[in-house]
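User: Please fill in residues for this 460-position structure.
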């Protein structure tokens, strides 16, 4: 457990200091990455100080700083997209689990009556986000060590890639997004599920259901892994009722505990499920331009999984190697591969499959844990020994890309090139891609493109 805490806290400190450094010296003055995360910044205060989910006291502050960004006809009397009005109260349009996780970070400052001004809230939200993703890395390490027979070196290597070679570093650890919380609970849920497969203790399935349920409550896309893990469970124990019935009931109890919490706070604060932010989107936002969008999810120069974390090329190789092994883990690797494929397929039909104004493959970040686990068969194979240098170079490139996000993700690229979801040609430009644009910015700052500086800036 000492190493678990060392990994979790070290990653959290690196996350926070990375932002604090570039922010304090004025290189990147973006304090809040997206309006999507604004309610989560204020909700912990309401939970601690009044024990409710209402954002009434902060409505004017939010509206003044972050009005609705997508509607040019927006007026001050309209409720921004990230809130819902229920009777006379304002509530978050997004799931509330992430701000609940942030409560311990806010607790002492709120109880000590520290002024809840923007400057303080920015720091508190960054600390909370860093801790959420940092501890997910700690649990990833435990999962790898206990259930995937990895050496300590391989477990640390894969965990480092999870923490710093994916958009967990540049995006999810830098704001109170839903995705980091989803990953945390998926990893913990998978840990308990594999505990059950290992020692058949039924109580593990209670925690499996509880944490998978919390993952789903954190973000609806968490439902897909639940379906596939249940399928794996039923298939594995289809001929053994003793290992199927009682653990299955405990798994359902875990899910029902989470469902009970959802129905309680929905009835008390939201009144009706139609006031939940995703309720209307589920029937109206399937506007992605498939199949272009599916290929974009993977290969777009400005949003693709393999463009921002090229190390995941080895995950695809790992899937192939894992299925060839035909051992006790082969079925799990198959489940991981199916999860990744179905998630990216479903997301490709979504209106903002590319993640809107965000860095990298945000909408596909929910399956980062499964892509990471698919690295295991590769690093355990002879291919890793043979191509180790290539692997390190590509893993290092993935980290470098995330560092570019830390330094340069400030909305300038989106403001210059983003044409929205109806015309996605901007997502396929190599010359004007976000990554190339950021590299040009580095070269300008180093004076390497000083004479051609005008060419490095967005052309209107």
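Assistant: Residues filled in for all 460 positions:
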């Amino acid at each position: 457990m000492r190493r678990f805490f060392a990994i979790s806290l070290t990653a959290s400190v690196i996350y926070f200091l990375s932002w604090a450094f570039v922010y304090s010296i004025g290189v990147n003055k973006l304090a809040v990455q997206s309006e999507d995360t604004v309610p989560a910044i204020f909700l912990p205060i309401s939970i601690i100080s009044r024990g409710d989910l209402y954002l009434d006291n902060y409505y004017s502050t939010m509206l003044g700083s972050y009005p609705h960004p997508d509607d040019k006809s927006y007026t001050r009397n309209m409720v921004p997209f990230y809130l819902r009005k229920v009777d006379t109260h304002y509530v978050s349009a997004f799931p509330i689990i992430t701000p609940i996780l942030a409560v311990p970070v806010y607790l002492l400052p709120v109880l000590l009556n520290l002024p809840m001004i923007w400057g303080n809230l920015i720091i508190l939200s960054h600390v909370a986000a860093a801790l959420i993703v940092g501890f997910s890395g700690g649990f990833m390490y435990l999962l790898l060590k206990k259930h995937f027979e990895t050496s300590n070196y391989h477990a640390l290597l894969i965990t480092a890639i999870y923490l710093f070679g994916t958009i967990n570093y540049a995006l999810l650890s830098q704001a109170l997004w839903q995705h980091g919380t989803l990953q945390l609970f998926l990893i913990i849920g998978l840990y308990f599920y594999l505990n059950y497969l290992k020692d058949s203790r039924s109580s593990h399935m209670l925690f499996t259901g509880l944490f998978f349920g919390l993952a789903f409550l954190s973000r609806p896309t968490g439902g897909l892994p639940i379906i596939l893990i249940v399928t794996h469970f039923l298939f594995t124990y289809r001929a053994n009722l003793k290992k199927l019935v009682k653990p299955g009931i405990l798994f359902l109890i875990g899910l029902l505990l989470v469902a009970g919490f959802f129905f309680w706070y929905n009835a008390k604060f939201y009144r009706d499920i139609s006031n939940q932010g995703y309720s209307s989107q589920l029937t109206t936002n399937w506007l992605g331009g498939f199949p272009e969008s599916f290929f974009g999810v993977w290969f777009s120069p400005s949003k693709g999984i393999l463009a921002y974390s090229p190390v995941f090329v080895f995950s695809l190789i790992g899937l192939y190697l894992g299925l060839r092994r035909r051992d006790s883990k082969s079925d799990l690797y198959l489940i991981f591969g199916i999860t990744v494929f179905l998630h990216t397929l479903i997301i490709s039909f979504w209106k903002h499959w590319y993640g809107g104004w965000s860095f990298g493959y945000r909408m596909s970040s929910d399956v980062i844990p499964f892509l990471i686990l698919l690295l295991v068969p590769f690093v355990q194979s002879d291919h890793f020994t043979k191509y180790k240098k290539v692997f390190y170079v590509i893993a290092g490139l993935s980290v470098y890309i995330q560092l570019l996000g830390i330094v340069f993700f400030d909305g300038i690229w989106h403001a210059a090139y983003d044409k929205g979801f109806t015309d996605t040609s901007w997502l396929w430009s190599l010359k004007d891609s976000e990554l190339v644009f950021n590299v040009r910015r580095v070269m300008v700052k180093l004076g390497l493109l000083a004479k051609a500086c005008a060419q490095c800036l967005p052309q209107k």
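For context: The chain has a mean pLDDT of 90.
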